[in-house]
Amino acid sequence: MKRTPWRFLASLFLGGLLCACASVPKSSATPREPVDVRLQRAVTHSFAKKTDLAHAEVDRVLEEAPLYRSAWILRACLFLEEGKLDAAARVAAHLRELAPEDPEPRMLAALIDQRRLRPQGRWLDAMRRAWFEAGRPNLDHNARMELLYPMQDTVAIVWARTEDVEDRFTAAMTGGHSAEQEQWLMDHVSGLRDPVMRLAAFEFFHRAVGPHAVVAARKRGRDLLRPEMASLAAESLHSDLPLLLLLGETSGNTPFTREELPELERIAELPRYRETDMARLSDEAQWRLESRGVRYPDWSFYWAAMGTRLLRAPLELLLRLEMAKEGLTPEERLRLGVAVWKLGGRIAEGNTSFEVLMGSKLMEQGALRKGDEAGRALAAAAAQRILEVSRVSSNLRPDLWPLPSFHREWLEAHLDDEVRLMETFVVR
């Protein structure tokens, strides 16, 4: 199967240390923690606004490892967050002496200059200007992973604190749940009272990967919700749920059939794919998860919100259009092309990169079937553009800058309009 550029995902790391000396008696002292573990604890302190503890941890790390660049970066960020720009500048200068070829010292120096110019300005704007001033360096590497805010086991935290079905389902939408936990959710689906969550659960139970017993149980969950979903879809002005009902039980290798075409045409005429506010959805997820012990900042709020957007069906439609040739007449292929073009355009109106990419790819497939080369080229360029914007903006690696104020602004802007945020880091 030919791999397309929109199928990708990344990363994990691991390390350890051991030493012994036969000529020296063994010590009973507790071994020191690795410096990266202690530095990550300092990052946690900084996000918890315990700056004294963070500084103390960094000081101890630098006493033991004075050339440890990540520790110097964290020290500069701590001073920046506190508004101590002269101290931050001294650290940035020292870091440049330690690593003159590294891009991080240039970024820090530019960011300090921006904070001097606009001390009351937004961190997001300062970071964007600093990145351009530093020449938009590629910071997407694994050399500073210890500066990541430590990941939390959202599912385990929530599961240990509550049996509330909606809270547990919100946690499960962030990923990392077990087959047993998913089985519990399917057994308690009647406890989902929020209509948005019932919609999300209907899509959630469409996944085909996992043990046979779990896959079979998911079908029972879908069948339980299907009458309600069919009733909602019949009256809906949005195309997300009707499209899921049309395609949810099909395979990506299945040719599109003439029997499915009239319903797809009806769906394509609906005015919107879905009208949802990612910021509101994330606020609700954050309220639920934080009340159960999940600490901010955490991207689990974002993934929980994304889990309610019913994005499986567009991907399923795209797979079917790319992987299989339809047994349709030329007139039916034209009708299919028109419907897919319209539907793709509705989906591309979304404000997440996934929606823009899926919508543009569908428009490209629609144009192919319509014989519209100009439209195909336009849609292909839009798809390539969002991939390029995503690649360039990801070079900043915002998650590797331990600046709590910047992180909060970044997450809020990401939820408000991800595509617009990424564009600002591409076009000055």
Automatic annotation (TrEMBL):
- Keyword Signal set for record: yes
* UniProt keyword annotation of Nucleotide-binding present: no
Hey, what's the signal peptide range on this chain? 1-22
UniProtKB keywords: Signal
Q: What PROSITE patterns does its record include?
A: PROKAR_LIPOPROTEIN
UniProt xrefs under InterPro entries: TPR-like_helical_dom_sf
**What is the protein named?**
Tetratricopeptide repeat protein
Task: Please give the organism.
Answer: Corallococcus exiguus
